[in-house]
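Take one record.
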Amino acid sequence: MVFEGLADKLQGALKKLKSKGKLTEKDVKEAMREVKLALLEADVNFKVVKDFINKVKERAIGAEVMESLTPGQHVIKIVNEELTALMGTTQSKLTFSSKPPTVYMLVGLQGAGKTTTGGKLGGYLKTMGKRPLLVAGDIYRPAAIKQLQVVGKQLDIPVFSMGDKISPVNIAKAGIEHANQHSNDVVIIDTAGRLHIDENLMDELEDIKKTVNPQEILLVVDAMTGQDAVNVAERFNEKLGIDGVILTKLDGDTRGGAALSVRAVTQKPIKFVGMGEKLSELEAFHPDRMASRILGMGDVLSLIEKAQVNFDAKKAKELEKRIKSQEFSFEDFLEQLQQMKNMGPMSQLLEMIPGANSKQLKNLEINEKEFVHIEAMIQSMTKEERKNPSMINGSRRKRIAKGSGMTVNKVNGLLKQFAQTKKMMKQFTDMEKNMKKGGRMKLPFFGK
């Protein structure tokens, strides 16, 4: 889970307040002491923690809270608001040049994931109807150019390269000319990184900045490096004047120090977060939604957005019709399964459900392999068998088991599960029809 350790501790500290009918100043101070320790353990910048605690305490000890009918809830609301403010209050969107192409310059240390992030950003902009061009400006790291070309090919985004013998400044300049000639309205420049910040690196980046005058300089930092990521952001901002931050590997960050500190320290917004290795796993950063997730309140809006992107509205309507006319088949089941997989790991989706805290998710075994097994079994069926599972007899079950590398028991289990799902769908459809007619609502019976 994102920020697992921090989320556990914050939710635990605030739960104690929630259970109290009335709050004293002592109760609030004790809870804030626990919150402070949780933030420091999560590698959040000390000054940021101090300011945050003072703001929450000042508001929480006020008359508005103490005289409230639900003071515990009120304090949680304040913590949520202050966490949101800490990370930037509202989503900070990319800005675009009035005269194309819009140039984005990606900077950062080696190993932060700049090259992959450049591809991910290009893919994100493609979904907005843009025509991006990736420019290979890292001439020092072995295979950096090749890596960008591979990423570009996977996403069907053109990559401009001049090899590793031309200066990055000239490559960037020529890349923009190429974009003008080929109607690319966005240019993403992948620049070189170092293992640490040095004068040569900064001089080169400053030269590129002066030459191409980018619309935005986006700093790519590894969220898992915590306070180091914040220090890097501060240094790059001092030297280059960055416009925003992209945090990579946030899906593996159990602490949260970078996400909670970087905006407060640099006063520059987090624009995107990398939530996985897939090239589609770059998300716009929403401070309010992230605060809700940390406090166990879920993130329903992001869940809905993921569903809207990955689920075809037309197909969803057709599926609804088939369910209502009792025509739901294994073909439909497989399609839904594949669309769910596109939404990301199941553990990440469950985090977005309000009330699902990290301890509950830890105890819940989510075996992603089960999806693969189900997929393999369905794909081992013939088209006729998928449409009409009742025809699957003993010999067919053996063939499906052999074709999918599963046991006959596994195939039997899948068929039984599918029959129960179909039965349940029929019961809910009948209930809906009954309600529309104005009849009495009959609850579905799930027994034998």
